[in-house]
Structure formats: C-alpha cells, structure tokens
Amino acid sequence: xxxxxxxxxxxxxxxxxxxxxxxxxxxxxxxxxxxxxxxxxxxxxxxxxxxxxxxxxxxxxxxxxxxxxxxxxxxxxxxxxxxxxxxxxxxxxxxxxxxxxxxxxxxxxxxxxxxxxxxxxxxxxxxxxxxxxxxxxxxxxxxxxxxxxxxxxxxxxxxxxxxxxxxxxxxxxxxxxxxxxxxxxxxxxxxxxxxxxxxxxxxxxxxxxxxxxxxxxxxxxxxxxxxxxxxxxxxxxxxxxxxxxxxxxxxxxxxxxxxxxxxxxxxxxxxxxxxxxxx
Length: 279
Hints:
Layout: H1 2-36, H2 41-44, H3 59-66, H4 70-102, H5 105-118, H6 122-136, H7 142-166, H8 170-178, H9 183-194, H10 196-211, H11 215-220, H12 228-233, E1 236-237, E2 240-241, H13 243-263, H14 265-276
Antiparallel strand pairs: 1-2
Helix pairs in contact: 1-13, 3-13, 4-5, 4-7, 4-10, 5-7, 7-10, 7-14, 8-9, 10-14
GO cellular component, one term: plasma membrane
Keywords: Cell membrane, Membrane, Transmembrane, Transmembrane helix, Transport
Domain ABC transmembrane type-1: 74-264
C-alpha cells in the first residue's frame, strides 16, 4: 500500500513539474513582452537585455495609442473578427447538420476534405484572393478580409459543429416533426438551443482565429482595413523597431482575448465536453 501511495505521489509530482514547465514555456514570452512595455526606450534595446525594468514608465502606452491609425486598426480588427465569425457560423451550421443527419458517403468525404483543406498553407489561398477581391471591387475592405479569415476557421467550425450535432438524439427532432415542425424548424427550435454551448465554443474559436491572423491581413489590406497586427509590425523609427511601443500595443491587443478566455473558460470546457459525449 505504501508503495502504491509513493507511486501516486511521484506521478503527481512529475505531472505538476510538467505543468509548471509548460506554463513557463508559454507564459514567459508574454511576461517578457509585458515587462518590456514598461521599459524606457533605451532599456528596450539594451545589450545584454534585462527582464525587469530599472525605471517603470507608461510612456510606451501613450506613444502607441497616440500613433495614427491605431484606434482605427482596433475597430477594423473587431469588425473583421465579428464578420468572419458570422460567416463561419452561417456556413458551418447547415453543413455540419447535413453531414451528421443525412450520413451519405459524400458527407463523409466532405468532412474529411474540410480538415484536409485546413492543412493547405494560407499563402496558397491568399495570393489568388488578391486578384479575386480586386476584380470584385472589394479589395482593402474588412468584408474581404473576413471572407479570407473564414477560410481558416470554417473547416474547424464544421468539424466542431458536427461533433455537437452528433451528440443530439434524433428523437428530439422526430418529436418536433410530429408537432408539425419542418426539418429546418427542428434545427432552429430544437437542435440549435440544445447545442447553444457548442455554437458559442465554435464562435469563440472562429473569433480568435480572425483576431490573431497576420498573413491575410498583410496581403489583403493597404490602409483602410488594416488590423492591429499589421500596425504593430509597422512600428519603426529612424533607428529601427520601436520595441517599447510595439510591446505596449501588443499587450493592449492581447488583453481582450485573454479576458474573453478567462470569462468564458467554463463555457468552452462545457461545450467541448458536450460535443465529446454521445447522447
């Protein structure tokens, strides 16, 4: 018995050590960025670099917010992420429902093909989109960028929604049809309310995919619809990169998604768990 308890304690210690290492691995870059945002301009480029600021200052935040185009880029990021999320949900919900309810051979190929498309390098899709959006007259717009972002989130959205719909017993829809509901009515009045947590999880992932995206924003925007990641990358002075302002704006840009994840973490876990259990 003592040997068994010793083994359990050792396993827990090893697990905690691994978790701490993972937290340090993923958390230290953000912590270093946060600390750098409070350094003076000279200290940000000091060699060797220091972790803690010798003099704390909020000058970098004032400088970052005061730059031309920063506030507009935040608005563009929000608008693009919301539009991209809506496009993904509007397309993913009916696609996933059809795949899970009709269960055709084509449906199985479709769901696998959606995941395969997720592995295609974004640059392969982004370059043709430049010409397509220019010909359509929507280049350098948030709507065009949202469409591009939807190509990233849509495969995962379809896969997630398929797992959530699979967890809903078909008997619920049959009961709704007996009461006179059409298939579309059953989807809207029965299935979607039951999988509301899953829809929220899918929306969160789609929003984050758009919020963090850089390559399409670089290729498909010029001035009007530039998002914040592009503005951050353009923070330069005559002496090189303005690390203080860059890190300050990066911290400000990270805060909304961090708060979103913290506030909705229970819903995310609950939604993912609901999609993982059948019936």
